[in-house]
């Protein structure tokens, strides 16, 4: 008798999809088949290559309070040794994480130890992110702004607003003056709507532990040598790990492992139909370069946007209300301009020693209201191996938030790149004549948004849960602004549930709602 091998179809080769595939291969006899609609591995965690340089879409700090996730990453790729050329190039003077491992000069398949520096650029000056209580902060803000911020925070401590919007969420933690200075304008750049129109859910997921009190607590812990990354608020972490050639390298390696262990990872295979019989998915229709094909399955794991998933389901009656909610779920899209420049005009004024006195930031939040750019990544500081000519050039990413179909999204590539260069020249980050090369990358549905029909999402989830062998994973699969580790945890919970035989999906939906915030990136 030949044993029938069960088959799991996984829609999407991003962190959630590939994690699920590997987890199936670790502990079950279920064969995973990963279907990726594009020709790229990693989803938004992919690494784009251009003229010898590598671009991280959004910036991915590999850090989690989940030991299971940290172990998963480092089992796939070992962490570097303590005295690598990488540290010498960046000039780190902090003691690195205690971890022995291979020299990155001798192998590409290695994770680097990185030092986190993220700052805010506002009023043409730099502020720590999160805002610190240093002398430089007071000087940059000026006496009047500082006094208003102090009294505003004290008022917020005794007069709490109902947390029925993201605006009130921030005001309760920072006071109105600091909110207006550092959160209001930037949040509107990211989401395209005022924070008063956004739900507090986003804040409770991304920055629920961050406040003036948390910053002060962190400062005292560091002063007395008691800082611990397992208890510190995750926006305050000072070190993280990072694949030598960018996040996409790790996910490409994960895909290779799935294939080596007998699974399949099929690119340019877009799921267009999800066929349900007796409240179970029995097969999916896939659009490929050669036409349509139907694949049977015992389990269907979806990292597809919920909007697309609901539209693809047939064989079961989908309530009109569910269709309407799913069809109108809001998203924000993302455009990155990669610029290779000779140098930046801004110089290093931090205590961190750096190569050629370059700024040490991994990314910079651009709070200036006279430009559209939201963030600036400096890829040299993520990994010197992302840059073709680290010694003589700086490879940067200019990040813009938009909505598919709006003016920014519709702008032609050359005009958009020209606008991006103009903006960095305007705020004195670069000189125009120092630009060596440029490209542009667009990402659809990068950020599930928290307004509009999002607040009726529970009705869609309730319907999806009636389909016994359908599991929704990851950022778009759950319409939740998950970080990379959260997406991975949804996959792990899913495979655990299948392995144990439970049909209860609550633990999967609960990832990043009831547990402590685990950060891999602030994107």
CATH topology of the largest domain: FAD/NAD(P)-binding domain
- Poorly predicted parts: 83-99, 229-235, 515-523
Instruction: Give the strand content.
Output: 15-25%
Assign an overall shape: globular
Strand order of the largest sheet: 7-6-16-17-18-15-19
CATH superfamily of the largest domain: FAD/NAD(P)-binding domain
Give me the number of helical elements. Answer: 19
| Largest sheet properties | 7 strands, mixed
What's the number of structural domains?
A: 4
Describe this protein's structure.
The chain has 523 residues and is an alpha/beta fold. The protein folds into 4 domains: 7-43 and 250-329 and 450-509, FAD/NAD(P)-binding domain (3-Layer(bba) Sandwich), CATH 3.50.50; 61-116 and 238-245, no CATH class; 118-236, no CATH class; 331-448, Alpha-Beta Complex (Polyamine Oxidase, Chain A, domain 2). The chain has helices spanning 15-27, 67-76, 85-90, 135-141, 143-158, 166-174, 176-191, 201-206, 212-223, 247-260, 306-312, 320-327, 379-382, 407-410, 413-426, 457-464, 474-478, 484-500, 506-509, and strands at 7-11, 31-35, 47-50, 53-56, 111-115, 118-122, 125-128, 239-243, 264-266, 270-277, 280-288, 291-296, 299-302, 313-314, 331-341, 363-366, 375-378, 394-402, 435-448, 470-472. The strands form 5 sheets. The protein has a 7-stranded mixed sheet with strand order 7-6-16-17-18-15-19. Strands 9-2-1-13-20 form a 5-stranded parallel sheet. It has a 4-stranded mixed sheet with strand order 12-11-10-14. Helix 6 packs antiparallel against helix 7 and helix 11 (306-312) packs antiparallel against helix 12. It is globular and about 70 Å long. Residues 83-99, 229-235 and 515-523 have low confidence and may be disordered.
């Amino acid at each position: 008798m030949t044993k029938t091998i069960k088959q799991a179809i996984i829609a999407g080769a991003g962190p959630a999809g590939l994690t699920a595939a590997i987890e199936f291969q670790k502990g079950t006899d279920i064969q995973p088949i990963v279907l990726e609609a594009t020709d790229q591995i990693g989803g938004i965690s992919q690494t784009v290559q251009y003229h010898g340089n590598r671009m991280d879409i959004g910036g991915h700090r590999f850090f989690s309070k989940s030991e299971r996730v940290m172990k998963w990453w480092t089992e796939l790729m070992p962490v570097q040794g303590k005295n690598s050329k990488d540290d010498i190039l960046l000039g780190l003077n902090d003691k690195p994480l205690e971890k022995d491992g291979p020299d990155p000069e001798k192998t590409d398949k290695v994770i680097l130890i990185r030092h986190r520096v993220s700052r805010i650029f506002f009023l043409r000056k730099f502020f720590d992110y999160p805002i610190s209580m240093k002398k430089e902060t007071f000087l940059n803000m000026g006496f009047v702004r500082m006094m208003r911020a102090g009294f505003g925070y004290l008022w917020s401590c005794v007069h709490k607003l109902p947390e029925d919007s993201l605006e009130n969420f921030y005001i309760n933690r920072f006071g109105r003056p600091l909110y207006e200075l550092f959160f209001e304008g930037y949040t509107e750049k990211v989401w395209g709507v005022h924070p008063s129109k956004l739900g507090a859910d986003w804040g409770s997921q991304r920055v629920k532990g961050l406040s003036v009190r948390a910053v002060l607590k962190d400062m005292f812990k560091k002063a007395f040598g008691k800082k611990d990354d397992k208890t510190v608020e995750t926006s305050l972490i000072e070190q993280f790990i990072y694949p030598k050639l960018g996040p996409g390298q790790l996910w490409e390696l994960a895909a290779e492992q799935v294939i080596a262990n007998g699974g399949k990872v099929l690119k340019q295979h877009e799921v267009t139909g999800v066929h349900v019989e007796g409240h179970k998915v029995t097969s999916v229709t896939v659009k490929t370069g050669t036409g349509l094909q139907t694949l049977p399955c015992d389990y269907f794991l979806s990292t597809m946007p919920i909007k697309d998933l609901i539209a693809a389901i047939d064989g079961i009656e989908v309530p009109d209300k569910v269709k309407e909610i799913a069809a109108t779920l809001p998203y924000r899209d993302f455009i990155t301009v990669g610029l290779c420049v000779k140098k930046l005009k801004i110089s290093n004024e931090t205590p961190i020693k750096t190569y050629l006195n370059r700024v040490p930031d991994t990314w910079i939040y651009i709070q200036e209201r006279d430009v559209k750019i939201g963030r600036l990544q400096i890829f040299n500081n993520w990994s010197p191996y992302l840059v073709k000519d680290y010694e003589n050039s700086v490879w940067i990413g200019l990040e813009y938030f938009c909505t598919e179909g709006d003016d920014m999204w519709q702008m032609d590539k050359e005009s958009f790149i020209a606008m991006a260069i103009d903006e960095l020249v305007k705020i004195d980050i670069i000189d125009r004549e120092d630009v060596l090369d440029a490209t542009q990358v667009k990402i659809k549905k990068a950020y599930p948004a928290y307004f509009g029909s999002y607040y009726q999402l529970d009705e869609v989830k309730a319907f999806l849960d009636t389909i016994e062998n359908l599991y929704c994973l990851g950022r778009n699969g759950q319409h939740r602004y998950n970080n990379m580790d959260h997406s991975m945890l949804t996959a792990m919970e899913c495979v655990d549930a299948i392995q144990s035989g439970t049909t209860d999906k609550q633990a999967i939906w609960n990832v990043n709602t009831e547990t402590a915030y685990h950060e891999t990136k602030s994107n």
